[in-house]
Amino acid sequence: MKEKRGSGEADAQDERSTHSLATTEPSSPCAVSPPSLTPSSTPTQHHLTLERGGGGERQAFNKMPKWMQVRDMLLRAAQDGDRYCEQYGDIIANQVAVERFISSSKGNVERAFKDLKAHLKWRHEYRVDGIVDEDFSDLKARNEVYWGGVDKRGVPTLTWILRKHDANNQRPERFVRFFIHQIETGMRASPNYPNTTFNIMVDLDEVGLHNNDTEMVAHLQPLLVNNYPKVRKALLVFPINWLVSLLWDTLLKPILMTLQPDIEDKIIPLRGDYKAALLDRFAPEELEEAFGGTLPLSVTRPPQPLPYKRVPCSVIVQDRLRRSGSG
Fold it and tell me: What angle do CA 234, 305, 3 make, to 5 degrees?
């Protein structure tokens, strides 16, 4: 994979600055001390609403942008002793990350607060921070799930060759953890983490009932739905033939809905000449030879994740208070 894969994302850059506070220093394998909160990192026009107050403060709180409301509720939880919220101040203060959860909750602030709070707990309990360093060399050697090229918009693509999935020869929990490992590895290759967007490409050629793995799907679905909202772009599915149509409801639909649960996003079945359709989205050098491009599978390399270090909420609050006092 070329160096640009996993880093350039036009869609994410078009949205807004990520306000990310996590350290991402590609030149060093060890994360360094967190940066101070500069005006570009957090809003300067609002003070953090950390104190419980009366009706006036509540009214002012309700006038704040929704992402700031969720942020302050999580900071309040951290201050009240929630250790999971305390650990991930960089995510809590990341506007795009918070807005992703607000969007997935249909704008409901209370639900977004609960969902993001649960996500932070999951990150700790599932040991997500260190998952990119775990050894899955046996599963990677099968070339079933891997990062391919980037599309013409600069969005990286995770490829799944479904016919290679064998439910009888692997534990579903380990495969799901490998799948999350692959997602995190690709997402962390971008400075936009944890808001890196990506495509998923599913090759259905020669797929059959022997590839059915309902237990794996049952494990994977809640993890993707609850913890990766609004980061998956196109879900490209091909080829669509009579066998695929026959197996759609019994085998394929549950898997595809797991990969793309956001109803605003679209599953894109490529019918007919799917290779020509893929070349409309990918430059030939970014598309594998098996899919009509010129990129050899042997050339695709796993993306290099940038180091990630959590920034505790206490650091964020202390820095905020220090800057307010100096101003």
Answer: 75
